[in-house]
Amino acid sequence: MQPEATEPEEDSVWEEPPSMLWGLDPMFNAFNRLYVKDILHMRESCQVSGIYFYNSHPIFKVDVLGTVVYKREREDFFCYGVDDGTGVINSLCWKDEQWREQGDGSRLAVISSAGARSFGSSAREDFNPASELKKLRQAQHSSSHLEIGELLRVRGPVKTSRQQREIMASTYLSDPVMAVQISWMMEVPQLYRQCYDKPFHLDSSAQNIQGGSASYLLGRATRILKDFLKEKEVTRFRPYDVQDLLQPLVSRQPLRTASEQEPEAGPSSGPPTSFKQLRELLQKSLQILQDEGLVFRKVKCQDEVYHVTERDKDLLMAVRDILREDCRREKYAEKGCHILHILSSVRQRYSRNVSKAALVLVLKALECNSDIISTIDSHYTIL
User: Fold this and answer.
1) Terminus of the chain with fewer CB atoms < 10 Å: N or C?
2) Residue 14's pLDDT band (cuts 50, 70, 90)
């Protein structure tokens, strides 16, 4: 029976769920009977190392049945190559403490002499403790040491070592009539159809948790940018000047440089998932700063330059000049200019992208400097 073909998930449409929701997936704590091909192609989490995703399901323990196709023995462990028909994966079987040291001739001689003294003259002449111990060790060693072609069931956590996927535990199976293999080949395709190939969907309560988590993350990102503007006292900046500040909130993976931000067109030139999440978080945070009037874009073009409202001397001067000129007119001499009139004039003379929230911050800054004064009903006049 051939395993059902599974297609890898597209990076452009897949988004890793927050780690606080992984426990809601029944597959998270189960030993998942996945094909080796799918285990080798699972995407590793960018939030927690050692966690992998298959079709948005978080996975760290698997259950594989296959044939030993190669073996290596080290001082502390055996390494077997397990082939289930779709691929080959390494399986590390750690040796028991008592079998890590192989007995040599001198050690057996000591045991033999001690055994002979204990038995004394009553010991049978045909009984040799050294040879019997050697036979026992060989029998136990053969029962725990597999040969190429034998069946091996591997159950344990997945890890990546030296850029290769490995499974850290295993169990030897005796299956003379192939009952286990037949049952396995019938059950695994059903598990794929009923569980593995169905994406992990959140219920309404989990979606509320996820939304709360996203809001919390966005709030932290916005606070980081506000603290940066306050501490550094910058007058203008570009997105790539501040994106590294938000990197710890999204991913541990290194980001590309500014010159690599615009990838060339092509089927495989899309940005990594962590970089895409970082860009989205940065854009949403900057939009909040714009809505609050803390920053604005004087000219909307491909080169994104954000001006810090309260430190833009040209904007402050433009507002002050507008009030100085218009307050001389008889119409505004008594009460001053209304904020909407000032906003319209600023958009005509300085920039169409200045928001009302940004103008309010500018007027407060000028009033604190005693350059202007507020009168009534959102009117301002020059001093």
Assistant:
1) N
2) low
